[in-house]
Amino acid sequence: MTDVRNIGATASLRPPADGESDDPDFAFVAVRLFARLDDGTQVDDPEDSVSVRLERTKLAAVELSVQMSLRLKQTPSGLRREAWDRVCAQLAETGIEAAPEDLHVLRFEFVPNDKLRREMTQSWDAQQPGPPSH
After folding, report:
1. Average pLDDT over residues 106-110
2. CA pair distance 13, 61, nearest whole angstrom
3. What are the distances in angstroms from CA 15 to CA 23, 44, 79, 109?
4. How far is 11 from 121, CA to CA, in rounded Å?
5. How far apart are CA 32 and CA 87, in angstroms?
6. Given 39, 47, 67, 132, which residue has the most CB atoms within 10 angstroms?
7. What percent of the chain has pLDDT over 70?
8. Does residue 129 fall inside a structural domain?
9. What domain range includes position 51?
């Protein structure tokens, strides 16, 4: 029987939703939780799990922001619990029984899409000191 190997989150930039500021200095990152099985199959939350808003200049640290928003060191509750419950329901459809508390302690993998990865790199590069002036 296949077991859950690790958990993680895919992440992508998203446009502001109705009522959210469209300030170009900020970015919204849609995060979707998943469980990865021993055979490599990825079982995704069928909806966006959480959304993170941060300054574009801080996109290099988006993985840390996501991990902090998921509070991986604490038992999931509220909206985080609901997201893990959806992942567990998807796992159950494949014949794997798991509880959010079981998943929450597994190794976490952050998987940004290509566009977000490029913006993360640009943010990181912009923060690096330039060559010394002579």
Report:
1. 93
2. 14
3. 11, 21, 21, 24
4. 15
5. 10
6. 67
7. 95
8. no
9. 4-123
Alpha carbon distance 25, 60 (integer Å): 14
The rounded distance, in Å, linking the Cα atoms of 30 and 13 is 6
Strands 26-37 and 42-44: antiparallel
- Predicted TM-score (pTM) of the model is 0.85
Contacts of 129 (CB under 8 A, 6+ apart): none
Q: How many domains does the chain have?
A: 1
Output b/e per residue, 70-80; b: 16+ Cβ within 10 A. beeeeebeeeb
- b vs e for 50-60, b when ≥16 Cβ sit within 10 Å of the residue's Cβ? bebebeeeebb
In this prediction, residue 39 has a pLDDT band, given cuts at 50, 70 and 90, of very high
132 domain residue, yes or no? no
